[in-house]
Design goal:
Blueprint: E1 2-4, H1 9-20, E2 26-29, H2 34-39, E3 44-47, E4 60-65, H3 72-75, E5 79-87, H4 91-103, E6 107-109, H5 117-128, E7 136-141, H6 145-153, E8 160-164
Length: about 170
């Protein structure tokens, strides 16, 4: 499994969960985050500033783009014959998901919003049991939420940004 954005909020959880479920995980992140992604359980790490994963010749059963930095068209050569491209964003990906489900072969699955209560309960249990590490980049008070958003929008945060609310 290849995870694009492996050091971000969704990616850091995806690396851990995939590794815990027995997947051989390759994380894609910037060079400054390779050690973090390895520590989360990735077997291999690709620094996207130095290497293009699509040019490596490696193929994966799953390519999971957690940050919207790739496309199915760009990643499909990195998928096994029956591989699946997962994306958390993009209408184009949702439309491709319908098309690829009809045509067979490589698949696209979009990040459509569904009821996530059971999944969130499972994640909470994993965190409480110490089996899932929460990566926190920075913490901001509520009155600095605009600054927090600007930091998130840089695309270079590690893990999560926390907003604190005090009564």
């Amino acid at each position: 499994m290849l995870i694009i954005g492996a050091s971000g909020s969704v990616g850091s959880y995806a690396v851990q969960l995939a590794a815990q479920f027995g997947a051989e995980v390759t994380g894609v992140c910037s060079g400054r985050n390779t050690e973090l992604v390895s520590s989360l359980g990735a077997h291999h790490v690709i620094d996207y500033t130095a290497t293009d994963f699509t040019a490596s010749g490696e193929t994966y059963d799953v390519v999971f783009d957690t940050v919207g930095r790739s496309t199915f068209a760009r990643a499909k050569g990195s998928l096994t014959r029956r591989g699946c491209y997962l994306a958390t964003t993009g209408l184009d990906n949702a439309l491709l998901a319908v098309w690829t489900s009809i045509t067979g072969g490589r698949q696209v699955r979009g990040g459509l919003s569904v009821d996530k209560r059971a999944a969130l309960a499972y994640l909470r249990e994993r965190v409480e049991a110490g089996a899932l590490r929460v990566v926190i980049d920075r913490t901001y008070p509520l009155d600095r939420i605009a600054e927090a958003r600007r930091h998130v929008d840089t695309g270079h945060k590690r893990g999560n940004v926390v907003i604190t609310v005090h009564e």
